Amino acid sequence: MKALLLIDIQNDFIPGGTLPVPGGNEIIEVVNKLQSHFDLIAATQDWHPADHKSFATNHPGKKAFEEIDLNGLAQVLWPAHCVQGSQGAEFSSALNTNKIEAIFRKGTDREIDSYSGFYDNGHRKSTALAQYLKGKKVNDLYIVGLAADYCVYYTAKDAIKEGFTTYIIEDAVRAINDEGYKRAKADLINKGGTIIQSSEVR
Ligand code: VGL
Ligand code: ZN
Known about the structure:
single chain, alpha/beta, Rossmann fold, 6-stranded parallel beta sheet, two-stranded antiparallel sheet, 4 helices, 24% strand, globular, binds pyrazine-2-carboxylic acid, binds zinc ion
């Protein structure tokens, strides 16, 4: 069984949002078209409380994109984004959500960030996504969404570790930083992941 996993296709990550990923809007048409090739589609949603400690605004004197130590982990400070219940946290209205069977929310604990759809950044708590996919007999996992160098990358890394045959669909992801994405891609290939184009999905 193969599944398509949509990572954080939310308004705040799309141009016009508070943490826009360049070209983020361009993936949506590709993702909508891809969905017909899959029997199972799941999604993640970045879902922070307003006082989340990954937000620069919650650290007086600090600026967005500075790095701090947060409870023992390196943490990039982000502009406030994907606040629970806000318009910015909603899926893009251009995204077809009808076939999404389950949504896994992450980043709800103010003390720790959560890039991967599987675990928080300290690998302390799971979202139960792995158990869900395994329960559905998924072995091949195709990952799309935003941002390629953060949540897509960390999700793919955990997917490989969890034993899924893992594909990143390159024309259905966009990165915050292209250099970071290059490094992420090399690391994923090195770990056994596969980078493909949407035209290769049958
Ligand atoms: C993300 C930064 C902060 C992402 C989420 O979805 O890639 N990036 N929160
Ligand atoms: Zn976030």
